[in-house]
Write a structure and sequence with these properties.
Layout (H helix, E strand, L loop, with lengths): L1 E2 L2 E6 L3 E6 L17 H8 L17 E7 L2 H12 L4 E8 L11 E5 L2 E3 L7 E3 L8 E10 L2 E8 L6 H9 L20 E9 L6 E5 L5
Parallel strand pairs: 4-11
Antiparallel strand pairs: 1-2, 2-3, 3-4, 5-10, 5-11, 6-9, 7-8, 9-10, 11-12
């Protein structure tokens, strides 16, 4: 089902999971021209929604799954799950840098602390002294002549975490990532493909997935 340009992937009494297209903000930006976003569209789709809608965000350039809350109690419940790191998240990405070499591990993790660069917002930098903990697991799921397809599992949720860890941890920027040195492409090749969390009302585990569009 698609409404206001957002595909509804899963829903419950207090939540909805939508598939965000690339180029759409998660929350309103500054100025009248930047008010169109996932949060405003969800409110238009569910006019009876109460309390904060936004539980988590995706970068504007990133596509994929976002869960939004439809009432204040569900928002608190979902927010606590993200804070406790009990939400499952999996992203699909295409990395550049040439064919994956035989001496490069096909599974592993990146642990590099990150922080905002105040002089070059929204750029994030690796900073072992002042950065916040950032932890990503990865698995190469396909090799290509120009790089590799990788499944990312972020264990923390820092801004641009996957983009920074690809560029500086794996030394292979995500294709289409203009901020971190990615090869040119029509879009950022990063997609939130799978999301799992507990239904705020019933406690049942909810799993949502959407095909990778690249």
């Amino acid at each position: 089902m698609e409404t206001l340009g957002l595909e509804i992937v899963a829903s419950g009494a207090g939540f909805v999971v939508v598939n965000k297209p690339p180029g759409l903000l998660s929350v309103p930006g500054k100025g009248e021209a930047n008010q169109d976003c996932v949060a405003s569209r969800v409110r238009a789709m569910f006019p009876d929604a109460r309390g904060p809608v936004t539980v988590h965000r995706l970068d504007m350039e990133t596509s994929g799954l976002i869960v939004a809350a439809l009432d204040a109690d569900s928002h608190r419940h979902l927010s606590r799950q993200f804070e406790a790191r009990t939400v499952g998240k999996r992203y699909a990405a295409v990395l550049g840098g040439g064919a994956w070499r035989d001496d490069e591990p096909t599974t592993g993790e990146v642990r590099l602390p990150v922080r905002i660069d105040p002089d070059r917002r929204p750029l994030q930098v690796v900073d072992f002294e002042h950065g916040r903990e950032a932890w990503t697991k990865y698995e190469v799921v396909g090799r290509e002549a120009a790089g590799a397809r990788v499944a990312f599992e972020p264990m923390t949720g820092r801004t641009h975490q996957l983009r920074v860890h690809a560029a500086y941890g794996l030394k292979r920027p995500i294709v289409g990532d203009r901020l971190y040195g990615g090869a040119p492409a029509p879009r950022l090749m990063l997609h939130a493909a799978w999301l799992a969390f507990d239904d705020p009302s019933s406690g049942a585990r909810v799993e949502a997935s959407t095909p990778t569009p690249f």
